[in-house]
Amino acid sequence: MNDLVVGFIGFGLIGGSLAHALREQNPKHRLIAYYYNKNKVNSGLTKAVQDGVLDDIVFDLECLRECDLLFLCAPVLSNISYLSKLKNIVKTTCIITDVGSVKGNICKEAVALGLGSQFVGGHPMAGSEKTGYTNSSSRLLENAYYILTPTKETKEGITEILYSLIKSLGSIPVILSPSEHDDITAAISHVPHIIAACLVNMVKKADNEDKMKTLAAGGFKDITRIASSSPVMWQNICLTNTDSILHFLDNYIDSLNEVKDSLSANKEEAIFDFFQSAGEYRDSIPNTSTGLLNKVYELYLDINDETGAIATVATLLATNLISIKNIGIIHNREFEEGVLRIEFYNQNSCEAAALLLRKHNYTVYER
């Protein structure tokens, strides 16, 4: 696209990552972000200006009048409330989109306000348990599905423009209806987040002496990692995608009751089938970074318990220009192979590291 004036309302992990990607795509884009409190400016916004990612911070919504493209990146309920405030400000040619995990409510509100023709719901299926601009990066969007949900009134040309832009940023745009999107995300993201939080709270309540916390294996931390996400964001999601979430929660509860009954009745075959069916379906899921629950690029390896062992591995990777996101010893390896866990920023780095380490006679376990 030509040089654009792009506005942001809300500027955290996703907004910051979009801004990074837009800045890299075309340095001439003018990127501005709105903040509601001039006397207490968000530190992430200030840093974004210092980094050259943002051109300016504005404190009056009227300053967004010049925008050609406007991203609503606040929590879901806040995004919806901003639409009515923007109705008489944005120009008719401005494309308005959001990045929330729920699409039905905001698309309906856009139509009700007369903004349906210029609104396209958006949901980049990427993220992290970490939040804020300081954790943002254009890499977050690379090869990630980016769902677009036009309203029933959205002009076709506007959808095409946004589709092309998202694709140019390195994401994979997919067009869905708002209701289809909300059902899918309830099943593969919203309910899993609730389950993860329930598991953590269950252990917390039972862990009177912190023994469970101390002995928690890597498997427990892996399946509950998403429970560390923003509570405000997930409160908003649950309050706006309630029907779809309740539907799939009911399905999950039915499944739990079936397992409970099988255990109570000692149904050996049913228990075996339960785990076999789950394993077969999970193994059929493509091992890519484009799912909604963000992919972790990691490998494990055996190292000797000696001074400098970790430093040797880190130096080997660094000298071959392979960046490490995280590294650490696994003390409880009940369900893990390898004593050293290394996490990378992308799949290419993970694969290159595995090849390099094996060349140097390390035993590597990939997941």
TrEMBL record:
EC number in record: 1.3.1.12
Enzyme class name: oxidoreductase
Source organism of the structure: Anaerocolumna xylanovorans DSM 12503
Biological pathway: Amino-acid biosynthesis; L-tyrosine biosynthesis; (4-hydroxyphenyl)pyruvate from prephenate (NAD(+) route): step 1/1
PANTHER family assigned: PREPHENATE DEHYDROGENASE, PREPHENATE DEHYDROGENASE [NADP(+)]
Name this protein carries in UniProt: Prephenate dehydrogenase
Domain of life from the UniProt record: Bacteria
SUPFAM superfamilies: 6-phosphogluconate dehydrogenase C-terminal domain-like, NAD(P)-binding Rossmann-fold domains
InterPro entries in alphabetical order: 6-PGluconate_DH-like_C_sf, NAD(P)-bd_dom_sf, PDH_C, PDH_N, Preph/Arog_dehydrog, Prephen_DH
Entry-linked Pfam families: PDH_C (PF20463), PDH_N (PF02153)
Example of a GO MF term: NAD+ binding
Domain Prephenate/arogenate dehydrogenase: 4-293
Record key words, sorted: Amino-acid biosynthesis, Aromatic amino acid biosynthesis, NAD, Oxidoreductase, Tyrosine biosynthesis
